[in-house]
Write a structure and sequence with these properties.
Order of helices and strands: HHHHHHH
Helix content: 40-55%
Structural class: mainly alpha
Shape: flat
Number of helices: 7
Length: about 170
Amino acid sequence: MTPIHSCFPDDQVKHLIHSYEEGQMHRAQIEGTLQVSKTSFFALFGHHRKDPCSFSVAYHRRSPRRLPDRAERPILESLLEERSKIVDPSLPISSYNYSAARERIRGSGVKISLSTIVERAKAMGCHRPRPKTKAHSRKVITTTIGALIQHDASLTAGRLMPKPSGP
């Protein structure tokens, strides 16, 4: 579903809402045209009703897409601190603690996600991938080649059932 602000200019949306107010168009028609749900339509209608002069479907992002330049230094310092702990042979630390790094970075006033820290750590060489676990080998122990072992928990396992007698 495409956002309204990228498909319709403000004056077209205003005109559609005005047509609904005057009874020239049905709500379902406008929802189909704008490709919005009933709830979204009434949200737009309410915003238009509050202040028709300043109504706009355009919006501004609340958070920037990129980190500010002042955020790079705390990230670098925190990752280098983590690296020094891993390199130090007297400490029993063998992996990076990105959550602790994030808390240190947040202490300097920078809001950052954990995935961004991991991405920066990989770029700086401050990332140690998880060791690959060795897959266990499957060994089947039998008394003879081709013999199968029956794993059965029933009471009749391993016993032969008597043949029913009769005609």
